[in-house]
Give the backbone structure.
Amino acid sequence: MPSRDPVADLKQIAFLLERANESTYRVRSFRSAAKAVAALPPEELRARADAGTLAKLPGIGDVTARCIAESLAGEEPVYLRRMLATEGTDISEAAAAIREALRGDCHTHSEWSDGGSPIEEMALAAAQIGHEYLVITDHSPRLKVARGLSAERLEQQLDLIRAINSELPDGFRLLTGIEVDILADGSLDQSDELLARLDVVVGSVHSGLRDDPAVMTRRMLRAVESPHLDVLGHCTGRKVPAKGVGDRGHEAGRSRPESTFDAAAVFAACRERGKAVEINSRPDRLDPPKRLLRQALEAGCDFALDTDAHAPGQLAWLDNGCERAALCGVPVDRIVNTWPAGRLLDWTAAHDA
């Protein structure tokens, strides 16, 4: 029986674990094993599998060694087969229609900041689940805990994305972006020159989340007024308990109350200036709460339905946002990432004009 590709099998298991919101350490064990296998010459890998010594290699444990051996023997690993048999949850017809319409994701992170995977892996996973584009939005400099990108590192990332795009499958492209911090005075944490060069700018508050409502409102209004901001990210900054969400900066089980601000004023400004309000699909955010999502809808806002993914499997968290959008009656044509890339880029470019 011909062997399977153990690296692909290990990566698929990691993807399914991420999608199921399992613990980070478990996901990391399969990704580490895939990296270790990819670095071995095929002859040595086969010899170690035959000798039963795979688990002696750094990055490979007993469970992953068994998966590798099964894959080399041409068998679907039992671990993978079990995950495929138990995955998936039904979503409503309305949510499924929104999910079908989505063409990409406007808020994702890579290992360049606080994500866990290379940009290439994020891109290939996005293409695999049917996206036409993916926006890489790593953090900005002030968010040091998340290894925010300096101007120099952001320039380097832009060069890398250009190079990666030349190697990606036809019909898929990476778009450049940033999740830029909205600072205490409402300014954006990156130079105007660099922000103007990016395809999509998501602006989020990450500090001073307990500011007085009047202060927070002024801060958010100034950010929305910036010609460079396209999407107002996770607007309340809340955290809700969620099993297994343990990326850097995203502790499992941790909760945080909503920031308070004049939502009517902020959503009116988004509507007036043509900026989108994010529907954040992370299970530890689900932001905005449904009452504010309905308020933004009634205010006439457009939306960006994003995952805020920090790993490839988390790109499948879109179902969470689709359910919430469907429950609140958000029309498909008001979600900017249902648009083709050309229309999305025309929309963001108009903000800078």
Observations:
- The first strand starts at residue 104 and ends at 108.
- Residues 247-252 have pLDDT under 50 and may be disordered.
- The chain has two domains: 6-86, 93-352.
- The two ends are 60 Å apart (CA to CA).
